Recover the amino acids of this structure.
C-alpha cells in the first residue's frame, strides 16, 4: 500500500468515526426529546431506557452508515483541495480519481461487512430491542387493533396464517396451519373457520385436516372443535408476527419457502429478502457516485460538503423506499424493487467515474 493510500485512508476512517459519533448523538437527543413524555407516562426506568437505546444502536449504525461514509469522503476530498494536497498528487503523475480509489475500495469492503453484520448481529439486536420496547417500556399493554393477513412461524416449525385476528376479543378467523415433515414437505394442513383463546389455550372450530403421506395421498378429517397446542397468546401473535427485520437471510428464505409451500404469496417478505442483499451495497455505490462528484467540486467547504452528502443520501433513501413500496404492492418485481435505487445511483456513479479525466 502506498504512502498516499495510507494517508487518505487514515483521514477517511477518522472522519467516518466522527461522523458516526455525531449522527448517534443527534439521533439520541432527538429521539429522547420526542419520547421522554412516553417514557415518563409508562413508568419506564432509566436502566430500561438505556437498554432500549443500546439494543437500537446497531440498527441506527447500519441506517446512517451510507451517509456517514459519503460525508467523510466529502470532507477528505475537500481537505485535500483546500490544502492544495491534490495539486501535489497530480504533480506526481497520479490522477485525482486514483487518489479516491482507496475510499471506494473501503466502501466495497464495508458493504460486505455490513451484510455479515446484518446476518449475524442485527436480527438478534432488533428482536431484543422490540422485546425491551414491549416488555419494559410499554409494559406489555394489550394490542387492541385488529390484525389482518397475519403470518407467523411458530417454535414448532409450523406456519400459521390468520385472515383476521382480534386480540381484544381473543379470536381469529380464516385459520390455516401448515406442518412440515423431515424432508421439509407439507405433511399436514389444518383449515378452520374460527379460533378462540380461552382459559390459556386455543380452540379451533369448524375445520378440516388434510394429512399427506410419502405417496402424496391425502387423508381427510373433519372436526367441529379441536384444541390447538399453541402457547402464544393473541397479544403475542399480534406483536410477534413474522418480522423480516428480526430474521437473517437464510431464516427469512426458509420462512418464505414454507409460506409458498402452504399456498401463500409472501411478496413483501420476498422483497425484504432481496433488500437484505441490496441494501448493504448502498455503502459502496454511494461512494462510487459521491467520490467523483466531490473531486469535481474542489472548492466546496465543509458546509457545502455536508449539504451535498445529506441531499444525495436522502435522494438515495427515497429511491430505495419508493422501490420497496412498489415491491410490496406488486407493481414491481421483488428483484427490481429491491435494486431500483442501486441501479439508478450505480449507473450514475459509473458514468461519473468513467467520464472523470485529468
Amino acid at each position: 500500500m502506498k504512502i498516499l493510500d495510507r494517508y487518505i485512508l487514515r483521514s477517511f476512517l477518522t472522519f467516518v468515526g466522527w461522523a458516526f459519533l455525531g449522527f448517534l448523538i443527534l439521533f439520541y437527543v432527538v429521539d429522547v426529546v420526542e419520547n421522554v413524555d412516553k417514557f415518563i407516562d409508562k413508568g419506564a426506568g432509566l436502566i430500561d431506557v438505556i437498554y432500549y437505546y443500546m439494543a437500537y444502536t446497531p440498527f441506527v449504525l447500519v441506517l446512517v452508515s451510507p451517509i456517514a461514509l459519503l460525508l467523510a469522503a466529502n470532507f477528505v476530498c475537500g481537505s485535500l483541495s483546500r490544502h492544495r494536497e491534490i495539486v501535489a498528487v497530480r504533480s506526481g503523475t497520479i490522477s485525482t480519481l486514483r487518489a479516491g480509489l482507496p475510499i471506494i475500495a473501503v466502501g466495497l469492503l464495508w458493504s460486505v461487512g455490513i451484510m455479515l453484520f446484518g446476518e449475524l448481529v442485527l436480527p438478534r439486536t432488533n428482536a431484543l430491542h422490540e422485546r425491551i420496547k414491549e416488555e419494559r417500556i410499554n409494559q406489555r399493554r394489550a394490542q387492541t387493533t385488529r390484525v389482518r393477513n397475519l403470518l407467523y412461524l411458530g417454535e414448532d416449525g409450523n406456519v400459521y396464517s390468520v385472515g383476521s385476528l382480534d386480540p381484544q376479543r381473543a379470536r381469529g378467523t380464516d385459520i390455516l396451519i401448515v406442518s412440515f415433515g423431515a424432508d421439509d414437505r407439507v405433511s399436514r394442513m389444518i383449515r378452520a373457520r374460527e379460533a378462540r383463546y380461552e382459559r390459556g389455550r386455543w380452540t379451533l372450530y369448524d375445520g378440516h385436516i388434510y394429512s399427506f403421506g410419502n405417496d402424496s395421498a391425502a387423508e381427510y378429517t373433519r372436526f367441529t372443535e379441536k384444541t390447538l397446542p399453541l402457547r402464544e397468546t393473541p397479544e403475542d401473535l399480534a406483536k410477534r408476527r413474522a418480522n423480516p427485520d428480526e430474521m437473517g437471510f437464510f431464516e427469512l428464505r426458509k420462512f418464505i419457502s414454507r409460506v409458498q409451500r402452504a399456498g401463500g404469496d409472501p411478496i413483501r417478505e420476498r422483497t425484504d429478502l432481496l433488500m437484505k442483499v441490496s441494501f448493504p451495497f448502498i455503502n459502496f455505490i454511494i461512494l462510487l457516485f459521491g467520490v467523483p462528484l466531490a473531486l469535481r467540486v474542489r472548492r466546496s467547504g465543509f458546509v457545502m460538503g455536508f449539504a451535498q452528502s445529506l441531499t444525495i443520501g436522502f435522494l438515495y433513501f427515497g429511491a430505495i423506499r419508493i422501490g420497496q413500496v412498489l415491491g410490496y404492492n406488486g407493481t414491481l418485481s421483488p428483484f427490481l424493487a429491491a435494486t431500483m435505487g442501486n441501479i439508478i445511483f450505480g449507473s450514475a456513479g459509473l458514468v461519473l467515474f468513467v467520464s472523470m479525466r485529468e
In short: The chain has two domains: 3-131+273-355, 143-243. The radius of gyration is 26 Å. Residues 31 and 216 are 55 Å apart (CA to CA).
